[in-house]
Design a protein that fits this description.
- The chain is α/β, with parallel strands linked by helices.
- It has a single domain, classed as Rossmann fold, CATH 3.40.50.
- The chain has helices at 19-30, 49-52, 60-66, 81-95, 139-167, 188-208, 246-257; strands at residues 10-14, 34-39, 71-75, 100-103, 170-175, 213-220, 268-271.
- Strands 3-2-1-4-5-6-7 form a seven-stranded parallel beta sheet, with helices on both faces.
- Strand 4, helix 5 (139-167) and strand 5 form a beta-alpha-beta unit.
- Helix 1 crosses helix 7, helix 4 packs parallel to helix 5 (139-167) and helix 5 packs parallel to helix 6.
- The longest helix is centred in the middle third of the chain and has 29 residues, at 139-167.
- It is globular and about 45 Å long.
- The model is unreliable at 118-129 (pLDDT under 50).
- The protein binds nicotinamide-adenine-dinucleotide.
- Nicotinamide-adenine-dinucleotide (NAD) is lined by residues 15, 17-21, 39-41, 44, 77-79, 104-107, 112, 148, 152, 175, 177, 220, 222-223, 225-228.
């Protein structure tokens, strides 16, 4: 009988309630891992039609359970360091260990649809205006984008590290972006946060390598999710002539979360169909 690659392992996926994070959770569950999801809104998939239509159960946790895995979901804002530590302690308590952490929670300069109730009609892509320029970026934008991308990632890594160190094993996957590699475009606060994640990943890999913990980043390009909508018009600018899919990214996460990447650490894998030159 073929044993599943990740049977007996526990994988944490932050921002796993929709989009790419949901894809990573389901992919790792199919490989046999038990799944912990932390998200600021565990029903975040309801917000965008693209994701709502794909759901096969009310929540991603129930989708993973249907695959035969133990799961836990915690609704936590990962910009709160203490709450992050508490959530990860709860996960380790319930599932016994933490082998894999995919630090996927994050987002761009456009507020999430489920944040918009307070200001109806705000920002259907229009808040690019508030992004400003690198020499003149509004404080609110800076705080938001650095917090939801960089701080959430660092707090998650810092909270899982003690468990992985004790286990003397672990796989941490951080999530950057092509925007963190390339400085073109109007997303400079986002690019700055995602570039910092690449640096942090390398620094953390140096520290945790002696504990047999691998730390690597992925940098997706144009990937179709509900939040970003249809950007197939960009296909002509991409050598592989198509937008990326959630599964394209999940397969790279599989590589970084399994023994296939045992001698890879501190690196960033760009998943962009060759878009960056
Ligand atoms: N979609 C793309 O093309 C693309 C490209 C490059 C990088 N990325 C990165 O991939 C990740 C996922 O992107 P997506 O398109 O699936 O976005 P998404 O908005 O669909 O998913 C992000 C999830 O993170 C959660 N989240 C956000 N802030 C949080 C916080 N403070 N605490 C807890 N949970 C929080 C959201 O609720 C949501 O469920 C992000 O880090 C994003 O920057 C995406």
């Amino acid at each position: 009988m073929n044993q599943l690659k990740l049977e007996g392992k526990v994988a944490l996926v932050t921002g796993g309630a929709r989009g790419l994070g949901r894809g990573y959770a389901l992919h790792l569950a199919k490989l046999g891992a038990d799944i912990a999801i932390i998200d600021r809104n565990l029903k975040a998939a309801e917000v965008y039609e693209f994701e709502r239509n794909q759901m096969t159960a009310p929540t991603v946790m129930e989708e993973c359970e249907a695959l035969g895995r133990r799961t836990i979901g915690l609704e936590v804002d990962l910009t709160d360091r203490n709450a992050t530590e508490t959530a990860i302690a709860q996960i380790a308590g319930k599932l016994g260990r933490i082998d894999i952490a995919v630090c996927n929670a994050g987002g761009g300069t456009v507020t999430f649809a489920d944040e918009r109730e307070a200001e109806p009609g705000a920002n259907d892509q229009t808040d690019l205006v508030t992004t400003g320029t690198p020499s003149d970026c509004a404080e609110e934008m800076l705080t938001r984008v650095l917090d939801i991308n960089l701080r959430t990632c660092m707090y998650t890594c810092m909270a899982v590290a003690p468990y992985m160190k004790r286990q003397r094993s672990g796989k941490i996957v951080t999530v950057s972006s092509t925007a963190g590699v390339d400085a073109r475009g109007r997303y400079h606060p986002y690019g700055t946060a995602k570039a910092a994640i690449i640096h942090y990943t390398r620094a953390l890999a140096q520290e945790l390598g002696p504990y047999n913990i691998n730390v690597n980043a992925i940098a997706p390009g144009v990937i179709r999710t509900g939040r970003l909508g249809d950007r197939s018009h960009l296909a002509e600018t991409i050598p592989l002539r198509r937008e990326g899919t959630i599964e394209d990214c999940a397969k790279v996460v599989e590589f970084l979360a399994t023994d296939m990447s045992d001698y890879v650490t501190g690196r960033t894998i760009i998943i962009d169909g060759g878009m960056l030159r």
